[in-house]
Structure formats: C-alpha cells, structure tokens
Prior knowledge:
Largest sheet: 6 strands, parallel
Pfam families: Peripla_BP_4
Order of helices and strands: HEHEHEHEEHEHEHEHEHEHEEH
Number of helices: 11
Domain Periplasmic binding protein: 26-286
Keywords: Signal
Subcellular location: Cell envelope
Radius of gyration: 20 Å
InterPro entries: Peripla_BP_I, SBP_2_dom
Helix content: 40-55%
CATH superfamily of the largest domain: Response regulator
Amino acid sequence: xxxxxxxxxxxxxxxxxxxxxxxxxxxxxxxxxxxxxxxxxxxxxxxxxxxxxxxxxxxxxxxxxxxxxxxxxxxxxxxxxxxxxxxxxxxxxxxxxxxxxxxxxxxxxxxxxxxxxxxxxxxxxxxxxxxxxxxxxxxxxxxxxxxxxxxxxxxxxxxxxxxxxxxxxxxxxxxxxxxxxxxxxxxxxxxxxxxxxxxxxxxxxxxxxxxxxxxxxxxxxxxxxxxxxxxxxxxxxxxxxxxxxxxxxxxxxxxxxxxxxxxxxxxxxxxxxxxxxxxxxxxxxxxxxxxxxxxxxxxxxxxxxxxxxxxxx
Length: 313
C-alpha cells in the first residue's frame, strides 16, 4: 500500500481530464447499519466530523453484510455526488475494487476501514485502518489453548467467507491452533453475519458434538447467536467460549460466564480516525498506509477496567 498525497491524486485527475470532487460531504459507507459494531463506528465518525469546519458526513450501509451489490451502489452514488472523500468498510475484497478505482480516477480520496481490499485495489486508496485481524485471531487461539489445553475438539463459528477481516481473523486463529496444539477443529461454519443463523448453526454443532471442549465466534452477530445457543442448550460453563466484538449482549455473556472472553476491536476509533485521515488527505498531508486501531481481550476479570471500557460499546 502506497503513501499518497491527495495532490498526487488530483495531478492524475488533471492528466485524465476528469473533474475533481467539489462537495463538502464525506461519505462513510459500512458493511451494514444493522449491527451495534457499525453504529459504534458511526459514533466515532460523528465525533470527528464535529471537529471539522466546513464538512458534513453521510453514513450508509446495506441491510445485511451479504448485500454486496447494495454497498457497491452506495459507493457509486457517492462518487456521482462528487463527495469530498469516502471512508469505506468493504463487504467483499474484490467486488468493491472497481468502485474504489473510479473514486481514485475522480480525485476522491478513499480510506478503507475494518476489512482489506484485494491486491487489485491497493493503488486506489490512500490508507487502511483496521485491527490486525490475524494477530487478533491468534490472541483468541492462545486464550483457547490456555483454557482448553492442547487436545480435544473445538468449533469455529465464522461469518462471511472471503471477507478480508474473516480471512485474517479466522486464518490467524486456525493457524495458531494447528501450530501449537493437537486440537481437532470442527468447521468453520458461516453465519453470513446473521445472529439467528449463527444460533441455529451453533445449536446443531453442540448437538452433533457433545464432547466439544471449546467454541469461537468470530464477529458480533455470530458470537451473540453462539452465546444464546450455549445458554439454550444448557452448556454455559461446560465448554470454553470465546467471542469477538463488544456490544452489551456480549458483555453480559462475559459477566454471567457464558463466554470466557471477547476480543474487542477499536470500532469507535475506526470511524473517528477514518474521518481524521480523510481530513488530512484533503489538506494534502501525508498519512500512514496502515493504521492499527487495536484489539483488547476482555474477560470477567478486566471487564470494568478503563482499558476495556474504552473499547466496549
């Protein structure tokens, strides 16, 4: 990923004869608006936009994370509105590349958050803000091994196959487990980031594997569905359960012992720093090509500490 000045982008625009953006709108487009995780991104973006003079913000996302075509259309519409910049959480690493390229060709800076684009799009955005998902997955795997041991059977409840965050997060978890234990992995199962589907999948997995020693839910709706299935099956406290993200439902599961831990991303920081990075680009400042927004492993022991409260939502 290159460190680019917005001026370089506009130089290219001048060469191609395409008119540059003239709006004062910064468009924030996320994978879905139906998740508390993305609403926390919204809160961070709102905080940052409130400190910028002369700019306004729009916030959009499809009804579900699997509605990729809807997100593509939202980016296209933002380009057509000649927005000043775009903060984008791509729901598919390949499908959003043509739209991000079009933004680049129109002199509109793009900051990617949460999930990476494929390498085909690496020259068309100016910064990527994310949790280091691979390290976050490894952190969850390490906690799993510490709680479960190195033998037995564990399950992986994932979300959308092929999404950048999922590849890193579940890949990091899986590789660490394989390299550091003899644990047998069941799955992964893909919920499409739908809580009800995750609940049903987890119910089936628990029924089919009564000897399961641990289970990992890799994003917010998946982990919530997983937690509810554990409770409904009467399995609370009988297996090690680790989730991802940190809304009130998941915090409650940690507090009552349904989940042993949750890995919580800096979702607020993604929105806040996403807007701040666009603002720097609009001023012509240099920005880092990758900005790590961090992750905190939250357990019952540290749930009420400032470190955890700063990322929970």
